[in-house]
Amino acid sequence: MFDDSIIRQARNVNLPEFLMSRGEPIKQMGRDGRYGPRYRHEVHTSLIFQNSQYIWNSHQGKERRGNAVDFVQLWYGWDFKTAISELTGETYTPTNPTIPQPKQKPNPVETFNPPNEGKNINRVIAYLSKTRKIQYETIKKCLSSKILSVDENNNAVFKILDENKIIVGAEVVGTLTDKRFKQIAANTKPGYGFTLKTGKTQDKACFFESPIDLLSYYDLFQNQLTSHYLVSTAGLKESIVTATIDRYDLDFHNVWICTDADQAGRDFAERMSGTYGFNVHLPSDGFKDWNDILKKQKAASGF
Questions:
Q1: What is the pLDDT of residues 23-46, one digit of tens each?
Q2: Which domain holds residue 211?
Q3: Is the pLDDT of residue 246 over 50?
């Protein structure tokens, strides 16, 4: 058995350096964070390293994190003794050597089929403008960009497009004021969120919990949003944040987390800021979300 000092040494091995020495495609992410440079696996883009720690945001449908020993056991299929030996160079003779298992290929994503289109787009327009107080010009912008429609049940469909403008998913929001309904359409592509672009080119990004908050924020700060991707994370999905940043090669200093001001939103924003160094902009003055602020502002102006 290895003594405790060797085990501690293994757990604290610099993962990016170790993995690059074995030929893994690891790339540094922008500028250094608070605790040193961050790296991303170029194939598994939700897999991030910093010093001896890793975070894998979407491994088999759940988040994994840990130290160097944890990771090499997961990645290479090594047992504990082999992991310690490989990380530190200390040798031993295992009684039952473990054969590294081949990496499993991710299951293919099924083809996305958008919800059946409805005919009453006026129902969606009325809900967004009258109930949610979103400006008609903002709604018109979404309609002309073909990222907003209505389904056969009169729900608002916020379409998710990839970088080639192909529909790869949707967030569906009910339009009844007395009954809340939210749904992520089946087979929505992981790592993508409903996105509104501002300006001719984009080099910044703001992330929200829902399309309604995204559009509300746009109305509130429209004049300041001149070169931004505004992205819904369909709740609090870190994988959408990291995949979007990687997809458009954004500088971490040009990223804002704009979640709700409730406990879950604050915890998410704090973790994202601490891990990646992102900026944080949350609703203030006791408001829970950006739509609450917009509705209050509209009420004060008599809208």
A1: 888 888 876 666 678 898 888 888
A2: 121-300
A3: yes
- Name the one residue in this structure whose structure tokens are 């389904």: 151
Which pLDDT score is estimated for 57? Answer: 81
Burial class for 245, CB neighbours closer than 10 Å (0-12, 13-18, 19+)? buried
152 belongs to a structural domain: yes
Residue 38 tokens read as 């961050």
Mark residue 236 as left, alpha or beta (left: phi above 0; alpha: psi -120 to 50; beta: remaining): beta
For residue 105, pLDDT beyond 70: no
Sequence-ordered alpha helix ranges (H) in 12-104: 15-21, 68-76, 80-88
Residue range 123-167, pLDDT digits in tens: 999 999 999 999 999 999 999 999 999 999 999 999 999 999 999
Quick one: CA dihedral 186, 188, 193, 198, positive or negative?
negative
Contact 95, 152 (CB under 8 A): no
Does 134 share its domain with 279? yes
Identify the sign of the CA torsion 55, 61, 62, 64. negative
Q: Apex CA 42: angle with CA 114 and CA 12, to 5°?
A: 125
